[in-house]
Amino acid sequence: MTENSIAYCGLLCGLCHPEGDCNCKFENHCSKQSSARGCFQYNCCSSKNLNGCWECTESPCGIDMHTLDNVKIRAFIRCIKEDGLEKFISYIENNMGQGLVYHRHGFTGDYDLETEDAVLELLRHGKIK
Fold first, then answer.
1. Which end of the chain is more exposed for a tag (fewer CB within 10 A), N or C?
2. What is the number of structural domains in the chain?
């Protein structure tokens, strides 16, 4: 897994694609398939020449409702911002090795928890206190 595996919003698109890269970064897949306004994170990050929301000084900006409503996305961005991208990737890879699943049922997996702190605890320690 690399930075190219992680979407601008912090989701792990590379886990679902055989090439291991995020289609959003290379084909603007989200913008093509979502509403007429496209993907907020793609549009914002590409206009600011950022690799993801975690690089933005205004993050979390709270402008996009998808990010505001998704605890996992907010926690992933926060983790990358606080711990760095390499550490975030190591958390995900270590947790996968311990049996944690990103997508268990459809798009829902082990990281889909009630609070950001619970997701961060799971990311950083592979368990919830």
1. C
2. 1
Residues 81-109 have a mean pLDDT of 89
Residue 108: beta bridge partners?
Answer: 105
**Angstrom distance (rounded) from CA 112 to CA 48:** 29
Helices (H), the chain: 23-27, 29-33, 40-48, 65-69, 71-83, 85-97, 116-125
State which residues form the domain around 71. 3-125
Q: Helix, strand or coil for residue 112?
A: coil
13-24 per-residue burial string, b: 16 or more CB within 10 A, e: under 16:
bbbeeeeebbbb
**Predicted model pTM:** 0.82
Pair of tokens at residue 90: 């190591």
Name the packing angle between helices 71-83 and 85-97 (round to 10°). Answer: 120
